[in-house]
Description:
Structural class: mainly alpha
CATH architecture: Up-down Bundle
Oligomer: single chain
CATH superfamily: 23S rRNA-intervening sequence
Low-confidence stretches: none
Mean pLDDT: 95
Helix content: over 70%
Amino acid sequence: MDQGIKRKSREFGVKVVNLHKQLSARKKETVMSEELLRSGAGVGADLVKAECAMGKNDQITRVHMALQKCVEAKYWLELLNDTAYLTEFEYNDTLKSCDEMAKLLVALIKTLRAANQ
C-alpha cells in the first residue's frame, strides 16, 4: 500500500485525537466527539487491516470501510460545527483533512479495482 496514504491517515487520526482531547477538556462534550474519534481514527486502522487482507477483494472492501468511516467522521464534524462546539479554524482545518483523506481513499479504491480486473 502507498506510504503516502498511510501517512495521511495517521496525520488525520492524530488531528482527530487532538480535537477530541480539546473538546473533552474545553467544552465538556464527549458523546459526539467520541463518535468523531472512533470514526476518524478508524480510517487508519482499516487501512492497516487492508494491508493484511486475504485477497484483492478483501483489500478493496477494507479500504471501502475506511472511506465509510471517513464520511462518517465528516458527518460528526459537521454536527459538532452546527452545534457551536468547534471554532471556525478547528472545523475548516479538520474538514479539509477529512476531504483530502476521502479523495485519496476513492482514488485507491479505483486503483485497486482496476488492478483486480
